[in-house]
Design brief:
6 helices; globular
Length: 144
């Protein structure tokens, strides 16, 4: 998969660590920065790239993961989940078809983040799953 990463300046080391980890899993990675203290800018840029089909998924990091999640979810076609544990990472992909995950570098350790990212990237949404009607309602609302 092609994975794009972005962060705010406070999460740079955390993001770089995760990028190396994801490369080690055999994925192609790209870095959208950021030196921009306005984390919404990099979150939007990553989400737009995924929504446009340039990348398969995005991983975006700030201090808590909340701000970048809100920003990414403003992009049509981007579905960001702010995750804090491995089960949420799994369900983000399997139940919610999230094409973006966000997390907080100040609230999650690197080893837990590695486990969450590995789980997220190992899962693929099944459009025939029991979640299909729920996910479709989100897409339908976005298009109304």
């Amino acid at each position: 998969m092609k994975i794009v990463f972005g962060c705010d300046p406070n999460a740079t080391d955390f993001k770089l660590h995760l990028m190396e980890f994801v490369k080690g899993l055999g994925h192609e990675v790209a870095d959208f920065g950021s030196d921009d203290p306005i984390y919404a800018n990099v979150a939007i840029k990553c989400a737009q790239a995924v929504a446009a089909g340039e990348y398969d998924r995005a991983i975006v990091v700030c201090g808590t993961g909340i701000g970048v999640s809100i920003a990414a979810n403003k992009v049509k076609g981007a579905y960001a989940a702010c995750i804090h544990d491995v089960y949420q990472a799994q369900r983000a992909a399997l139940s919610n078809n999230a094409n973006v995950i966000t997390m907080g570098s100040q609230v999650i350790g690197e080893k837990l983040a590695e486990c969450m990212v590995a789980e997220y990237l190992s899962c693929t949404y099944d459009p025939n799953s029991r979640s299909k009607d729920k996910v479709q309602r989100i897409v339908d609302f976005e298009n109304e």
